[in-house]
Amino acid sequence: MPTEPAPPIRPRRQMSARLRLTLSYAVFLVVAGSVALFGFYMALHLGLGFKLQSADITSRGELRDAMLVAAAAALLGLAAVGLGGGWLLAGWILRPLDDINQAARIAATGRLDHRIRLTGRSDEFGQLADNFDHMLERLHDAFLNQERFAANASHELRTPLAVTATMLDVARTDPEGRYDPALLERLQLTNDRAIELTEALLRLSDANAVTAVSEPVDLAALAGGAVEELEAEAERRHVQLHAKLEAAPSVGDPALLRQLVGNLAENAVRHNRPEGEAWLATHIDAVSSRAVVQVENTGPSYTEETAAQLVQPFLRGAGRTAAQNGDRGYGLGLALVARIVNVHDGELTISPRPGGGLIVTVALPPPAYRR
Q1: Which CATH class is domain 216-364?
Q2: Is residue 183 predicted with pLDDT exceeding 60?
């Protein structure tokens, strides 16, 4: 499923605004020409009526037919001029709407640094473009402030947590044994979890700050490293880890993409059932030429709706409670994956696996891709 909800689908228009304006202009010209020709015809007919009284009817009929042919030719000419001129005129008038529409599409992907900067216009389109640029500027500043706050807050949390960890280490090694070992152990675990959560928030903040990617990277190599790191844990958890890694070159930030693949592989192993299985595969999509990494695992059953919600921060597969195997996640793994995919202009799909578990697919741009 998409990482973000798609905009509502509007009813398909029968014709574009440009075509409607073109046809309206052409119809106007035809109607105006028809009125002018009718008036000319009546004036000519009445004026010649007295002069041609001595002429035979055949001469007057031939004259009338000739006028009708000329009038039809004039109308066709006016229609051609109206269609051609109307199309060019409508394109010139509505050209700013194409720029605004393109900027809206870019902003919908999460990029807020793009601006229309429409020049030479002081009409309603120019005002609309300026207001849209101003809105993007405000949104961009708001997101930057949010990311900066998250990063600063996480950094500020590091220091007291590190001090607490040092104090706990000292208390545990107290030669007089004045502290309850069980309490110290629980405090140490709690502090370690707080430190790990802070580090996860920092990584998420770093991912939010990424605006450009350019280095070549092979998802197969990153996936191979993740498999090696998880072999011992998979064996300890009695999870069979299968890997089918084909070359999948792409472009991006190697550190963030390594984090992406590692998070997906860890989730497949840790959020599994006893004697379960996990599959990790990489390949190139034959149709889009995108680099694809797909992770599949056995585990709890999900619906389409609950699977789509797993990218929300602090939301875990078992809700906001402990997992069945006793581990507690922080609910940031897939949120971080979704953000990394977004800044790399990729596509994330999360769907429930028949029989339980998830199928997570990430498609990233090919090596020749440029933002």
Answers
A1: alpha beta
A2: yes
